[in-house]
Structure formats: C-alpha cells, structure tokens
Amino acid sequence: MLRLLMLLAGLVALAPAARAVESAAVTSPRSTVTLIADRAAIAPGEPFRLALRQRLAPGWHTYWTNPGDAGQPPEVTLALPDGASAGAMRFPAPERIPFGPLVNFGYEGEPVFTIPVTAPAHLSPGETFTVTAAANWLVCERICIPEEGAFRLEIPVEAAPRATAPDITALFTAAEAAEPRHAPFTARLGFAGARGAIEIAGPGIAPGAVRDAFFFPAEWGVVENAAAQPLTVRDGALTLALQRGPAEALPARVEGVVAITDAAGVRGAYLVGAAPGAVPQAGGGLPLRQAMLFAALGGLILNLMPCVFPILAMKAVSLARLSGAARGAVRAHAASYTAGVVLSFLALGGALVALRAAGGAAGWGFQFTSPVFVGAMAWLMLAVGLNLSGVFAVGGPVSAGGGLAARGGHAGSFFTGALAVLVATPCTAPFMAAAIGAALAMGPVEAMAVFAALGLGMALPYALLGLVPALARLLPKPGAWMEWLKQGLAFPMYAAAAWLVWVLSEQSGPPAVLAVLLGGVLIGFGAWAIGAAQASGGRVGRIAGLAAVAGALALLPMLAAAPPAARAAVDAGSEAWSEARVAALRAEGRPVFVNLTAAWCITCKVNERMALATEGVRRAFAERNVAYLTGDWTQGDPAITALLRAHQREGVPLYLFYPAGGAVPLVLPQILTEGIVLQAIASQGDAS
Amino acid sequence: MTVTITRRAALAATGALAFAPRLAAAAPAIGAPAPDFALPDQDGTLRRLSDFRGKVVVLEWTNHDCPFVRKHYNSANMQGLQRLAADRGVVWLSIASSPVGEQGHVTGAQAKELTASRNAAPAAVLLDHRSVAARAYQATVTPHMFVISADGVLRYMGGIDSIRSTRVDDVARAEPFLRDAMLAVVEGRAVARASTPAYGCAVKYVDA
After folding, report:
1. Which pLDDT value is given to residue A57?
2. Pick from A149, A231, A323, A449: CA 20 to 30 A from residue B24's CA?
3. Which residues cross the membrane (chain B) (predicted)?
4. Do the Cβ atoms of B205 and A101 come within 8 Å?
C-alpha cells in the first residue's frame, strides 16, 4: 500500500513536467530514479543527452566512480535503436561523505548522470526514437540497499531538435556544470612512504583566492580516503598533503578530480593527472630552519639591490661619521639600525599575514600596489636627496631618514633601517619568493620568524660592526671627504624618486604622474624655504615650507582617486563594462554578453580560458554580433558591486547574456562550459 | 620478534582511540606484524589473535544484512571458502563489528544461529562491538578480508574477489583474490596481489 502511495506521489510530482521526455520513475522510500532526455524532440543525426536522474531521500547517498571506503557507483546499460551511439556515462564531481572514521565519495540530494547520445542520420521526422535502459545503483544511509530498475523513453523525432521544459534544460545545465572539466592546471604528485602531496599550478590560484580544495583520486587505494588533505596555497599553486592508500603500486599516471572552492564560495571541479614523481613541497617546500637561513642570506644580499642602495648611501654617511666615534656609540647605532630593520620586516610581515587571514589577495610588496604609498615614497626620496644636497638641514620629521648621521641620533639609525626595509620589499619579491612563500604557508608564528631572519640578514653588516669594533677601525677617518660623499649620494636618492614616479605611471596613468610631480615641486619649494629660514633664523620661511609640504600631502588623495589601469587581463575582443555601454549597445539592437570577473577569482579565470576564449564561442560571438563586455571587480568597483547585488550575488563570477531586443538578461551558471555559453547565445533565436 | 600486548596496553590503546577522530595512525601493512586483538567469541570466550600463532589466520569482517555480504553467503561462496580453510588448517575468524543498534549487530546467540542457518563454517565468530579490531585493521567494509601467516605477519588485505557488485552471478566470473591469497600463504608461496580494493558496505564504527 505504501509502495502504491509512493508511486502515486511520484506520478503526481511528474505531472507538471509533462512536456519533458522523462521515463516512468522507479521509486523506493530512499530514491526516485528516472531516465530523462534533454530535448522534447530530437533530429536525425543530432547529438543530445540522456541522463539518469536520482532524487534521493534526505540522509541517503549514491556513489562516484571511486566510491571511497565503501559503496558502488551506479551502472546503466542502454539499448538504443540501430545506428545510434552513446558515450560513457558522466559522473558529477563527488562530495566527501563521512561515515564514522570512513569517508565515501558520492552524492546526496539530486545527482544527475548524463550520457551523450547521437541519433542515427537515417531517422525520419514523425518516427519515435525508443530507448530502454537497465540500471542498478547502491543507495546507502547507515545501511546500504542495492536498487535496480528498467526504464523506457520514447523520444519524438522531428526535423529540428526541440527544447524541453525550461526546468529540465536547467537540470542538464546544472549537471554539466557539476561535471569535472579540463582546466589550464598542471599537476605534480608524489609519495615518500606514507606521506605525499599533490600540487596544482595554474592561473588565478593565490592565497586569497582559494577557500578549500580536495583531491578525489580516480582509482582505489592511491590515497587514504578518510585522511584530511591539509591545504597550502601560494601564488600560482596550491598543495594538498596526501596520505598513501593501501594499493600496493601506484598507477603509471594518477588521475583524479580536484575540487576547489574559491573565495566567493563557488566550487569548481577540474580533471587533473600526473605521473608520480618527487613529493611536491608546500609553499616552496622549505623547512622552517632552512627558510630562515635562506631569508637571512637573502636579506644580506638585499644590501646590494638597486632599490636599497640609495638608503645604504645614507648609511654609508653615518658609518663614515662613526669611524671616528667611540666603541659604545658604534654599538648603539648598530643596534638601533638592526632593530629598525627587523621591526619593520616584522611589521610588514604582520600586515601581510593579517591581510591574508582576512581573505585579502595581498602579495609580497603589496604596499607598492597602493598609488598613495608610491607617491609618498617618491616625495620622501626627493626630500632625503634635498637634505643630502644641503638644501636644508635636519629638524623636521624628514630628518628621520636623512639627517641621522649628522645628529647621531639613535632614532635616526632606527628609521634608516625602517626606510631601507620599506624600499627593499619590491626587490625582495622576485628574489625571496620561495622563502616568503614558505613562510606564509607555514602559519603566522613561523612566518614572523622568517621575516625576522630576513631583517637580521639585511642588518648583518652593521650589526657586525657593532659586535666587532675592530672592523670599525678599518673605516676611513672622518674629514672633508664626508661632505662630498654626502652630497654625491643625493643623486641615488633622486634616481629612486624617478623610479617611483615611473612605478606610479604604470599603476595610475598620467593624472597621477602630474599630481606626484606637482607634489615634488611643492616638496622642493618647502625644502628650499625651510633651508632659507634655517640660514636666516626667520620664521616665515619655515611656515611657508611646512605649508608647501602640507600642500603636497593634500595632493595624495588625488593619487588614490586616479583611475587605476585595468587590472584583470581583459579578454581580447572584449571592452570594459559600464551600465551606459550596455544600454548603448542594447539600443543599437546588439546582443550583449557581460563577464564580471576579478584577477583573484580562479573560477573566473578557468571559465575565461576554457569556455569564453574558445574558438567556438568567439566564432559564435562574431556570427551573432554579440558585444562582449568585461567588468573588472579586482578592486571592488561599486558599480559592479551594485550589478552583482541586483542579481543577488555577493561576488564574481557573474555572467549575463542580454539577447537582442529581449528585456531580461539571462543569468548563466557560475561554472561555465563552452556548451553552456553556446546554448545561451543560441537561445537568442528562441527568445525572439 | 614477537609482539605481546598486555590487557592494560590494549585498554590504554582503546582509550586513546576513543579520542582519535580518525582511524588509528599506524595503518596495517603487508609484511608487517598483524595487529593483535582480544575479542569475545560467540560463546563469550576471549580470543586473541596471538593464540593462533603457528596457524594461518583469515579475518572476515561481516554484517549479515549487508547486500555485499549476502551476495557471498547466498551464493555459498563464503561457506565454501570457510570449509576450504578448515580443510587446509586455516583458522577462519568472522568478525562482527557493528555496535548495538546498527545493522549487522549480533549477540553471541544470534551469531551461532546465523552460522547454523547459513551453514557457515568459521572457526569462530568474534564480537567487536567497540570497533577495537576494526580500528586496528582499518577495516572499511563488509566483507573486508585479511590473511595472516603462521608467523603473525599480515600477508593479504582487501576484497574477497574482483567484481565490485551485489549480484550473485558475478561470484563465478570474479577473480577470487582471497582464495588465491589464502592458498598461497598456506603453501608458502608469495601472494600475487597482496592488497586489493575492498568493496562492500561501510563498517559501522562506534562513535569515537
């Protein structure tokens, strides 16, 4: 009786989808299973899809091809009319389904397993294409029940394929999006004893961009299914630590699916495979002690880097002065300078760790991505140079960097160290990537230890001077040459300022360059006025000078407001999104495809490479005269935020297709395939 | 080298495992000493694996209501293997790990009744209601099979055969991994495939 009721309930549930070509359901208290087609009618010779559609009762699950610790994947045997062909059944990317200490790989809810079919060309419209299928599936909760069923589907044949009910089309679109897909990722994998790791490298992978990841091996026994896979992410690659499973030998090539949940919470599944090799090391693979050693060495070498050199010029002056000083003074200066360097590295490191913890996509040298910071640094360099040139003497805050040697203040030494670090970081980016990557992958405490080592390495030459006073005796005696040296060293500072203006021009374009140069003039004026006041003892010059400096600082917001150059690589053939541009294009009667993306969004990058940049999509865009607009949300454009909100989204990606003449845009899924895009563009014809 | 585990150590290990979120850290390994255990049999007699030193031992994880287990009992495949084992002097231990309230949970009396009604022939049915042996062997499914040589070394772990299904028809078609491994160990030959995919229903563990 219950069975009968369930069956009736199933039939009633199916009634509204009457237009869908769907078989009678095989039902149990655990599952409702049908065979379904993605067309209301098929055409001779055309490819289409069938699917085994499972609707599972809460708590029950079915299995992926590798079911994990227990279970069995569903099997379908199709009987097709003569001349028709079918491909292998496709499985959605699985979920981890824990059961006690075990973990299975499978599905809860409503998994859909698609099967590509090609109708024979010899069919004629009016015929019926009859498919029968025998299927079996194991459905488990705490207990497992093997189920099976026979299905029959009669699909009308018409001259042209006819779309099925919208909810079924959406079902197939969602199923396709849930299937693992190819991605521009390269994988490396290896085991040493029971421990191993897989590294996935590819565009868009960065610490702020990956929330979670898991590797599902295609074959049994390669990895311990229940073992956690600790994730480490660095720029360009993620690493999952794996535990070797019970299989005696690894396959020649380990295949599988990596599921990556990005910062926006979108889960994408990608096919990956690699021949087993050396164990990929997380974050560059350095143990802490080694990372610290390399960091210290790197810090030492930083002293020779072009971006640090100007600062060292200042330090050279101070050393020259020290050569005549008492041992205690030398030691105190060395200690102050070392403290300045180390604490600055710790401050930078701490800021970076905090930013990453907050989910930001900060990279090393992040402060140089801020135009305001770069502009301010250019002015500071200019001011220090003017000081060295003798335009003004120390006395204001600027003296922190430049005037230290003259006054011999310990604060001066400290701030020289701090300044050296601030300017040194962009140099460290290419040079220290491995150590810093390792540091960030290790966790906050270890990261700070590596940053401290970096600072100690950089300060080492001066620290040695303090510890071994004999070395100080080797320094030349003070004399008139020191003034020449000091004035000569102004020029590296000017060069540094010039370099920073160039950096700014790359970042923010001509208006920002104008602002920073104007500010430079004001700084120059201020320095001159202050210098004049120092010479004459007047107050007016001093006030005018400070006013000029304040005026320069007031220009800083202009740098921030300058429109940043487009950051995310905008696809060739697309133009920048704006509300007005969309309206204008639609007024012209053109269909519009909008891609809202960000540089740190992996799902976006994969979609762009695998679904939007393909030959087929480009051709379809061209043929149908589709305007392709890209909106870059890398820096959180408020207009794009508003558009996202309007579609109930908290983040990118968002894909919208505005058909020509149609009022309502079509919202595409966040996981795109070429087929989904092509179908969306083709639907234009249906809509009009 | 012989490994003896005192009752206290075993209890301590059990206690520690109760707090371990996952399976025991040390995975059973082919060629390594098989983890010892002490479990009551169908008559309440405490049996230790080490009691059977000198004989080849087969461990069969079982849950009589699991469709994969039923496949091998309904086809009489399991009983045939148990009788073959007995003929060759192999000690066959069926281990029922399901805790109270879970499918496959049996008392000693129920175990004896099942052995009789299914015409089964294990040397003993061991009751692992606390999942102690299951954790030690990282048993994942029913049936999960292990073969231990006379010197107490693990020689085989994995599936009973090669076809992962619940269909009785598949038994005859499958490659009999467990049978091959058991006979190889009895005859002193190397086991051709010492670790194979175990398939079946998930072992029901006591909540850790």
Report:
1. 95
2. A231
3. none
4. yes
How much is the pLDDT for A8? Answer: 44
Looking at residue A199, which CATH number applies to its domain? Answer: 2.60.40
Residue A227 touches chain B, beta carbons under 8 Å: yes
Q: How far apart are CA A97 and CA A508, in angstroms?
A: 49
List the single residue in A with minimal CA-CA distance to B199. Answer: A70
Q: Is residue A178 part of a domain?
A: no
A418 and A499 both lie in a single domain: yes
Please give the average per-residue pLDDT across A90-100, as a whole number.
92
User: How far is the C-alpha of A129 from the C-alpha of A115, rounded, in Å?
Assistant: 16
Q: Which domain holds residue A238?
A: 186-283
* Tens-digit pLDDT profile for residues A477-489: 666 766 777 787 7
Instruction: Write out the two tokens for B124.
Output: 């003993």
| Co-location of A164 and A192 in the same domain | no
Report the pLDDT value the prediction gives residue A313, as an integer from 0 to 100.
61
Indicate the pTM of the whole model.
0.63
- Cβ of B205 within 8 Å of Cβ of A102? The answer is yes
- Whether A530 and A620 map to the same domain: the answer is no
User: What is the CATH superfamily name and number for domain B7-19+33-202?
Assistant: Glutaredoxin (3.40.30.10)
Residue A407: pLDDT over 60: no
Q: Using an 8 Å CB-CB cutoff, list chain B residues near A71.
A: 201-202
Residue from B64, B163, B201, B204 whose CB has the most chain A CBs within 10 Å, to mutate: B201
Chain B contact for A104, CB < 8 A? Answer: yes
Asked if residue A431 and residue A317 are part of one domain, the reply reads: yes
Q: Do B23 and A226 touch (CB under 8 A)?
A: yes
Tell me, what's the pLDDT at A17? 39
**Shortest Cα distance, chain A CAs vs residue B97, angstroms:** 13
Model pLDDT for residues A287-346, shown as the tens digit of each residue:
677 778 877 887 777 776 555 655 666 666 666 566 556 667 777 777 888 888 888 888
**Mean pLDDT, rounded, for A39-64:** 94
Q: Is the domain of A125 the same as that of A244?
A: no
Query: How many folded domains does chain A comprise?
Result: 4
Domain final position from A239, A266, A283 = A283
DSSP string, A208-230: TTEEEEEEEESSTTSB-TTS---
Both tokens of B43, joined, read 């008559």
- A134 contacts in chain B (CB < 8 Å): none
State whether A295 and A370 are in the same domain. yes
Q: Is the separation of the CB atoms in A415 and A340 below 8 Å?
A: yes
What is the C-alpha to C-alpha distance for residues A657 and A173, in angstroms, rounded to an integer? 15
| Stretch 453-492 of chain A: residues touching chain B, C-beta under 8 Å | none
In B111-196 the beta strands, taken as DSSP E runs, fall at: 124-127, 141-142, 145-148, 154-158
What whole-number distance in Å separates Cα of residue A315 and Cα of residue A282?
A: 38
What is the dihedral angle through the alpha carbons of A591, A595, A596, A599, rounded to the nearest 10 degrees? -150
Out of A154-163, A516-525, A594-603, B94-103, least confident range: A594-603
Which residues in chain A are closer than 8 Å to B201, comparing Cβ atoms?
70-71, 140, 143-144
**CB < 8 Å to A28, chain B:** none
The ranges assigned to domains in chain B are 7-19+33-202
Could you tell me if residue A18 is inside a domain? yes
Q: Note which residues in 62-91 of chain A have CB less than 8 A from chain B.
A: 69-72
Instruction: Quote the minimal CA–CA distance from B165 to chain A in Å.
Output: 7
d(CA A172, CA A52): 11
Cβ separation B67–A145 shorter than 8 A: yes
Are A247 and A265 in the same domain? yes
Whether residues A279 and A305 share a domain: the answer is no
Distance of CA A676 to the CA centre of its chain: 24
| CB-CB neighbors (< 8 A) of B204 in chain A | 100, 142
Highest mean pLDDT among A17-31, A219-233, A516-530, B86-100: B86-100
CA–centroid distance for A392 within its chain: 47
Q: Do B67 and A227 touch (CB under 8 A)?
A: no
- Return the CATH number at A146: 2.60.40.1250
Chain A partners within 8 Å of B203 (Cβ): 70, 100, 102
